[in-house]
Amino acid sequence: MKIKSTVATLSLLSMLSFGAFAATSIDAQQAQGRQSLGTVSVSSVTSSPMDMREMLDQKAQEKGASAYRVIEAHTGDEWHATAELYK
C-alpha cells in the first residue's frame, strides 16, 4: 500500500512541475544567440491578444521550447499570430 501512495505522490508532483513550465515571450534582441526550433501559428482567436499569447505559449511548451518571439500578428474579426520558437 505504501508503494502505491508513493507512486501516486510522485506522479502528481511530476505533473505539477510539468505544468509549472512555461515558455517565455521574448523580443528580437533577446532572441539573438538562441537556437531556433521552428515556428508555430495560431488563428481564429476571437477573444483577446492575451488568449492568443496563451495559445502560443501552449504550442511552444508542446514543442519543448523555452521561449518564443511573435514574428507576425494581425487582427480583423479574429486574431492570428506566428511565433518563432527557441531552445
UniProtKB/TrEMBL annotation:
SUPFAM superfamilies: YdgH-like. Keywords: Signal. Pfam families: YdgH_BhsA-like. Residues 1-22 form the signal peptide. Residues 35-87 form the YdgH/BhsA/McbA-like domain. NCBIfam families: stress_YhcN. This is DUF1471 domain-containing protein. It comes from Atlantibacter subterraneus.
